[in-house]
């Protein structure tokens, strides 16, 4: 799952510039990635060196610590505009576990990511200081305690003015993250890509697991419900009115079947208008994709989104946004 929030726009992470002599240098220009809608500058001086992924021209991909995009690892969010954080938790899942290994595997695969995106023009590393903050030290034997640990970790990140880019982790983790976000920003909007709405109330007598995070968020007033959209929803259910709760709260529920064989660009244009300029959180569950593309998900549902469709939400410029995957 991917999630972002704070004073920025999510449009993919790419970048350039000559930080640390790892890639060709050049004068920084405004990034088309995470940005402040008011046009405020990064906390770094405009000509100060910034972290960026090293070029494989100079550093072999197999070399170095396994961090996200091979960025520097640091313990504190101070001085950062955005940071990657792993939340290796899967004890809230109801089917196949394994998401605890998600942050590590995402980091391993991220060695292939380069700092510029020619398709979008995104060059965020030219204007943003980004690093990897490692993982939240979750308690794999206690879900409630893990949620506390996640919430406290994110409170510190958000208090430092840093945009969290989360690597999950089952969807339970979104609840404590949004607790920390709402504590600073008030109720936030939500762009949620998933096969499931995750608005159940209880299972086996428990009110907290990966099927309930957004129900708990509504209960605590963490979401601006008129600015919540759920995309890619599908699958069988116990009743025919399975969408009733989300829609009764004011959520926009977009079924996967309404996305089949279509570009999501028109939809995301409408969503962008709905979100406005107030803070939002973007959450991607891997099962939003059709399992033909991501068969390792714990809760596969056929007839999902394609990878190209999944890029459309990220290519929107959402002001004041935070991301999780």
From TrEMBL:
<dbReference type="GO" id="GO:0046872">
    <property type="term" value="F:metal ion binding"/>
</dbReference>
<protein>
    <recommendedName>
        <fullName>Guanidino acid hydrolase, mitochondrial</fullName>
        <ecNumber>3.5.3.1</ecNumber>
        <ecNumber>3.5.3.17</ecNumber>
        <ecNumber>3.5.3.7</ecNumber>
    </recommendedName>
</protein>
<keyword id="KW-0378">Hydrolase</keyword>
<keyword id="KW-0464">Manganese</keyword>
<dbReference type="InterPro" id="IPR023696">
    <property type="entry name" value="Ureohydrolase_dom_sf"/>
</dbReference>
<dbReference type="InterPro" id="IPR020855">
    <property type="entry name" value="Ureohydrolase_Mn_BS"/>
</dbReference>
<dbReference type="GO" id="GO:0047971">
    <property type="term" value="F:guanidinobutyrase activity"/>
</dbReference>
<comment type="similarity">
    <text>Belongs to the arginase family. Agmatinase subfamily.</text>
</comment>
<dbReference type="GO" id="GO:0004053">
    <property type="term" value="F:arginase activity"/>
</dbReference>
<dbReference type="InterPro" id="IPR006035">
    <property type="entry name" value="Ureohydrolase"/>
</dbReference>
<feature type="region of interest" description="Disordered">
    <location>
        <begin position="16"/>
        <end position="56"/>
    </location>
</feature>
<comment type="function">
    <text>Hydrolyzes linear guanidino acids to form urea and the corresponding amines. Displays specificity for substrates having a negatively charged head group and short chains including taurocyamine, guanidino propanoic and butanoic acids. May protect cells by detoxifying potentially harmful amounts of guanidino acids. Metabolizes L-arginine with low efficiency.</text>
</comment>
<feature type="compositionally biased region" description="Low complexity">
    <location>
        <begin position="25"/>
        <end position="35"/>
    </location>
</feature>
<dbReference type="GO" id="GO:0008783">
    <property type="term" value="F:agmatinase activity"/>
</dbReference>
<dbReference type="GO" id="GO:0047972">
    <property type="term" value="F:guanidinopropionase activity"/>
</dbReference>
<comment type="pathway">
    <text>Nitrogen metabolism; urea cycle; L-ornithine and urea from L-arginine: step 1/1.</text>
</comment>
<keyword id="KW-0056">Arginine metabolism</keyword>
<keyword id="KW-0479">Metal-binding</keyword>
<dbReference type="Pfam" id="PF00491">
    <property type="entry name" value="Arginase"/>
</dbReference>
<dbReference type="GO" id="GO:0033389">
    <property type="term" value="P:putrescine biosynthetic process from arginine, via agmatine"/>
</dbReference>
């Amino acid at each position: 799952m991917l999630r972002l929030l704070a004073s920025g726009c999510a449009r993919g992470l790419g970048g350039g510039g000559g930080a640390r002599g790892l890639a060709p240098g050049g004068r920084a220009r405004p990034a088309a990635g995470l940005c402040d809608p008011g046009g405020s500058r990064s906390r770094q001086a405009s000509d100060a060196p910034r972290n960026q992924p090293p070029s494989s021209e100079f550093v072999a991909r197999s070399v170095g610590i396994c961090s996200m995009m091979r960025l520097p690892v640091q313990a504190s969010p101070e001085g950062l505009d955005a940071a990657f954080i792993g939340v290796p938790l899967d004890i809230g899942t109801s089917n196949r576990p394994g998401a605890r290994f998600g942050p590590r595997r995402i980091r391993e695969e991220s060695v292939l990511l380069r700092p510029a995106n020619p398709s979008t023009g995104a060059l965020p590393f030219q204007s943003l200081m980004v690093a990897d903050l490692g993982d939240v030290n979750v308690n794999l034997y206690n879900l409630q305690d893990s949620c506390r640990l996640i919430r406290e970790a994110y409170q510190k990140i958000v208090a430092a003015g840093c945009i969290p880019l989360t690597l999950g982790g089952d969807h339970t983790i979104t609840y404590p993250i949004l607790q920390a976000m709402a504590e600073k920003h008030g109720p936030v909007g939500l762009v949620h890509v998933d096969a499931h709405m995750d608005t159940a109330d209880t299972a086996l007598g428990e009110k907290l697991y990966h099927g309930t995070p957004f129900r708990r968020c509504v209960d605590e007033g963490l979401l601006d419900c008129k600015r919540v959209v759920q995309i890619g929803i599908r699958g069988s259910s116990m009743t025919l009115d399975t969408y009733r709760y989300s829609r009764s709260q004011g959520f926009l529920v977009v079924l996967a079947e309404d996305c089949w064989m279509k570009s999501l660009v028109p939809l995301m244009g409408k969503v962008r208008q709905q979100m406005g300029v107030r803070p939002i959180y973007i959450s991607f569950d891997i099962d939003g994709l059709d399992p033909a593309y991501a068969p390792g998900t714990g809760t596969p549902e056929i007839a999902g989104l394609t990878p190209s469709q999944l890029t459309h939400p990220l290519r929107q410029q959402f002001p004041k946004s935070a991301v999780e995957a």
